[in-house]
Structures are given as C-alpha cells and as structure tokens.
Amino acid sequence: MIKQKVILIGGPTGVGKTALAIKLARLFDGEIISCDSVAIYKKLNIGSAKPTPEEQKQAKHYMIDIVEPDCEYSVSDYRNESERLILDIASRGKTPIVVGGTGLYMKALLFPMELGKSEKNEAMRQKYRQLALEKGNQFLLDYLKQIDPQSAQNLHEKDLPRIIRAIEIYETTG
For an engineered disulfide with 145, which of 111, 137, 152, 166 has Cβ 3.0 to 4.6 Å away? Predict the structure, then answer.
C-alpha cells in the first residue's frame, strides 16, 4: 500500500466512469489507470466496457490490453504494477486517476492486504490439463466445487487456467 494522493472512481459497468475520469484527467492534468480485471486482457472486449480508442486519445490510459488471454494475472500483479504507475505518474507532477469496477483490485490498492504467493507446480498443472482434455473442463470445475466451493463459485467452466490454479492452490496449501 502506498501513501500517494490518487483520484479513485469505482462503480458498475456502464455508469460513465470513463467519461468522468477523462474530464478529471483534463481538469487535474491526470493519467488514468484502469482497475478492471477483464480490461487488462487483450482480445477480451465483450463483457468489458474498455475505453474506446477515441477515449484513450483524450487522456493517457494504462492497464488496458496488457496481458494475453491465456496468461495468468493476479491481484498481486495488478497491485504491484498499479503502485509503480501511481508513483511514476505522481513523480511527473501529474494526478493518478484509478478507475474501474473490480472491487478486489481497488481494495488491494487501498488497504494493506497479505497477498500470499503459492508456488507454481507445473507437473500438477499438466496433470489437470490432461484430465480436462480427457474428461472436460466441467469435470475439473465440479471437483473444485467439492474441495473449495468458495473459489469455484466465481469461476466459469471455460476459464480452465483459473480452475486449475484454484485446484493447485488448494492442493498445495490446503
């Protein structure tokens, strides 16, 4: 957690957060950091109200289309990169503006959180990838529902990397 003045705009999709952020960026010489867990992914444009190219020309935007869809990007990754950006923007005399609707990302920026790292286990991941090929993603999601229902409730059958990661974390940490 950093101690830096930041404008924070949060709320659900489609309420005008981007338009407000652009107005504030012009008013306070600011730069915008997206706080959207979907907008960080390239090619995932449905289900996310990513700023349009025209909107991105009106004010500098960060954390949009930075990760390939098949790559992992954690809350810890988001927090670390956003904190770096906030400090960089402020060091240039500009106002950091964080805007989005992902509450967990905002919470990670605002409050001290212990974001523990579980070591990656490639052999375990490969085992579950193979199992998904043989029995389907739903089989793994059903397994996750048995061992960690709380994690499973936030995942979709098509989100295989996160299903496998949740199983991996459960099996390595309990």
Answer: 152
The model's pLDDT over 143-163, given as tens digits with 9 standing for 90+, comes to 999 988 888 887 888 888 888
112-144 pLDDT, tens digit each: 666 555 667 888 889 999 999 999 999 999 999
Amino acid at site 48: S
Give backbone dihedrals phi and psi of 105, rounded to 5 degrees, phi first. Answer: -65, -45
> Are 144 and 169 contacting, i.e. CB atoms less than 8 angstroms apart?
no
CA dist list (Å): 4 to 23, 112, 156: 21, 14, 36
Q: Which domains does the chain have, with CATH numbers?
A: 7-110 (3.40.50.300), 122-173 (1.10.20.140)
Cα separation values, 21 from 47, 111, 121, Å: 20, 22, 40
For the sheet with 95-100, list strands across it. 7-10, 95-100, 30-34, 61-62
